[in-house]
Sequence to fold (377 residues):
Amino acid sequence: MPVERARRRLGVKWSRYGDDVVPAWVADMDYDPPAAVTEALHGHLNRGDLGYASMSADLPEAYAAFQQRHHGWLPDPSQVRVFTSALHALEAAIWNTTEPGDGVVVLTPVYYPFLDAVRDSGRRLVDAPLDPDGWRIDPDRLDAAIDPRTRVILFCTPHNPTGRVFEPDEIAAVADVAERHDLLVVTDEIWGELTHGPRHRPLATCDERFAGRLVTLGSASKSFNLAGLRCAVAVVDHAPLERALDAMSTHLQGAPSTLGVVGTLAAWTECDDWLAAVRVELTARRDQLARRLAADAPAIGFEPPEATYLGWLDFRATDLGDDPARALLKRGRVALSQGPKFGTGGTGFARVNFATSAEILDDIVDRVATTVAAAVA
Fold:
């Protein structure tokens, strides 16, 4: 997408900063969504069909079929509940299975709204940092973090911001801790289709010890660039939460709009070819980022992600300080996500979104490299 067209977009990515800033922060792609999605949306608009959503009941079956095609997992549609967003479902799980002061485990660095959700609910963050040497799960550290009032583990696979696809032994460690301490696991798997080789394995298929204590979050938002449609699902395999949601006011559980449902259904049922093509494009941009950084900014540490379109950049060997994204915005007029916001392990890091054109990505790297070089001049 040419930068001139991107700047005409009204979404937050391109509108938050001035026209002299190149945005590479929030997780939206600079690509058009699938034609089947926009055609479905246009059909409803052309008919003036903007009443209350009538097709939400079709989402569980569509999601189950999509998961089976892509990951060999067939979730029970009767356990699939519809929410406005994945974070909405995550917060509903926390509110309905914990009390104020209860502990919720986070494996940091992690998508920072996880941290906000725990704090805002009056629950207690239980930090089990990933090992910064490869961002692996440390089983002993995870187990040692659990205390008598810990109730939930928040998981993210593929992982945001590092792009890791966790190994079977790491997943087994989470299952072991969850079983021994009787913990609910809420797993955000909205990046599962955007891998660069390693296959995503839904937690529900990885270990039988997750059975009965798992909530899996899903959405078409990342894979098909539809975040603004506000539609997600949660597979609730946890009897206490199922009962709590059944007793909870339906209005508090929210509902996606008609267009959110229509667009999501089109994505999950008609757009596999588009998804395959965008994965090729994203891998090419990932590799471009790796080449450019190695050649023009070798002081920046970068391990190409196994999944997502996010790069977790290590600026600790540069002179940009603890929050390099702040310096990059001010001096280089390029907007990355601030590493410290992602919790333990984020100091000295910044997250870059490389889901853009080759030309815009070159501009992003040029600005980053120039800023780093000027800082040591």
